[in-house]
Design brief:
With 80 residues, this protein is of the alpha+beta class. The protein has one helix and three strands; from the N terminus they run βββα. A three-stranded antiparallel sheet has the order 1-2-3, with no helix packed on it. A hairpin with a 2-residue loop joins strand 1 and strand 2. It has a domain of 44 residues.
């Protein structure tokens, strides 16, 4: 998918098609593809932001841990 001088194009099977020549239904489907890809990009960006936030929060917690915080009542086993 790209926007060139003639408008949007759709590539399939090594051929480039002009979207403005699609049927109305095809043009709606194409628009939905573009909108969905935009939403996916935003979701990926948000996921990366949230993952970075979690790493940052874990770093804050890790930086303050001391031996006197260990729960002696629970057997310490490594997480898998």
């Amino acid at each position: 998918m790209s926007e060139e001088g003639n408008g949007w194009t759709y590539t399939a099977d090594d051929k480039i098609y002009l979207v403005n020549k699609f049927t109305d239904e095809g043009q709606v489907a194409f628009k939905l593809i573009v909108e969905t890809n935009t939403e996916l990009d935003a979701a990926r960006k948000k996921t990366m932001q949230l993952e970075m936030a979690v790493r940052g929060f874990n770093a804050v917690i890790s930086g303050q841990l001391t031996d006197d915080m260990i729960n002696e009542e629970v057997e310490n086993t490594p997480e898998e």
